[in-house]
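Example 526, ligand flavin-adenine dinucleotide.
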Amino acid sequence: MAAVTKYVSNFLSRGGALAPLGVVTQVRHGGGGPILPPHKGRAHPADAPSWAQTAGAPIRQGLKNYYIYNELKDVAEALPKEVPFAHKVLIVGGGCGGMAVARNLARKFGEGRIAIIDPAEHHYYQPAWTLVGAGQYNMADTRYKISHMVPKKIKLYKAAVTEFVPDENHVLTDKFGKIKYDFLVVATGIKIDWDEVKGLKEAMGRDGVTTNYSPNFCELTHKMIRGVKKGTAIFTMPPANRIKCPGAPQKIMYLAEEIWRTEMGVRDNVNIKFITANPGQFAVKKYADSLNKICDERGLERTYKSNLIAIDPDKREATFKRVGEGSDGSTFTERYSFIHVSPPMSPPDVVKKSPLANEAGFVDVHPTTMIHTKYANVFGIGDCTSVPTSKTAAAAAVEAYAVCENVFGASTAHTLHGHYDGYASCPLVVSKNQCIMAEFNAFTGEPWETFPIDQGKPSYLMHFMKKYVLPVIYWEAMMRGIWHGPGLFREAFAWLPPFLTAKKVQWVMKDSQERAREQAPAAASA
Ligand code: FAD
Ligand code: UQ1
């Protein structure tokens, strides 16, 4: 009897006898794979307005009701009995973006519908690693067990995804085999490509070579800074699109310089160099100007369009290649007594080799809806995606809003309300009690600030935010799925007493006028 039931159910689940009558019997999880490739025949993000058109639009108005997922309604209905692991929403990666999405969706969908896959023991609050490297924060306070962050209503698989099979709505894992889903959210972050810099892997952690980009070396950074007495200290940075938190490579330079100057009294003996593959100090002019001013005041040398390609720890030499527009591709070598390396990064290989990746290996998503450009039931969030933003937790917080709204909207009301607006932020700590709170629209390159002060200036209040307030926002709000960036505060502050609002408007106007003058010098002088 059981065999007959199984046969009938298999027959029906493959579209079988009722299909010609127009009766929807397909479920995606038939043993032989889906009849209908998951992305076929549906409205698709490609039909949506381009991200440039919607960038900066208020979140809730972005792509509201833009297109309708009729078929997702049908395919999302039933989960097959024969598949041991199947979930409404499967989230790959329990880091910053993945956890924020999981906790939010678990509240929306309820018990047992959401699952996270992550092989890691710990979740890290990476934004504090810069402070750890400067001795201002405890490493232990940046980590928390993933299993303790996941409430019972979310299923946690402690495993790594080894293959994405989006045409069949499943992933393969190293410990649990096949896991199926209705919706997939890819949140694997990016990993360090140690091998791209010759000799780096062997050099790490010895003879003055360190990085804040790995939890294994942040505490060592502080120890090594304290060990510097004289010589040259180098701080490197790869191309901005190969790194997360593009401010971090220089934040540690300002903090180290302060330690050498004010605490150790060795500043006069240390030559400090920031050597970056990028053409300037920061992508947003307003903050680049402030940072350049600080560098000039504090005697910090800058070399642009120069990418670290090799390290020789025995000779304490670093080799750089001239890159970018107008460069001749030549190399030069610098001796160091201390070097803070910000290594190049990219998505894990499992993402790069999957059908989800674009040419550069990032999960290819529509930059405002966060929906995959080919697979309509696949979403991406955070550092691993192709979204042209600054890879930060701040951006991921707003992206999480778009992902959660759109996953839930697609599976229930079949509408897409969620919209990532390009917001990104980078708290540029420039001393142990001062910070420039850079906030901007990464799509347009314009400042997009929250507070009623000139955020281009170093401020005590913003350092307090960075060190004491943002960690609480992260652990208590973002990791519970209820922080989607400071947009509401930005709007609330606009209602402050008119003189404050007017002051802010003045600062913003000044910035954009300066930019306009630079872009059209002839017109401005006419
Ligand atoms: P992650 O948080 O890195 O999480 C990725 C998760 O995916 C990990 O748990 C990993 O184990 C898991 N994973 C990987 N491969 C697999 C697999 N095959 N299967 C299953 N799971 C997998 N941002 C700010 O907003 N402000 C700051 O001041 C700031 N400062 C920073 C300073 C430093 C030194 C660093 C390193 C980062 C900083 N950031 C900052 C950036 C911020 O931490 C990242 O942008 C954010 O963590 C990205 O989140 P994510 O979810 O994309 O990736
Ligand atoms: C932010 O939202 C965020 O995620 C929680 C960060 O990571 C810790 C940040 O560093 C920043 C700056 C923001 C933006 C929030 C404010 C209040 C400016």
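Summary: The pocket of ubiquinone-1 (ligand 2) is lined by residues 127, 393-394, 397, 425, 427, 437, 439, 450, 470, 473-474, 478, 483, 485-486 (CB under 6 Å).
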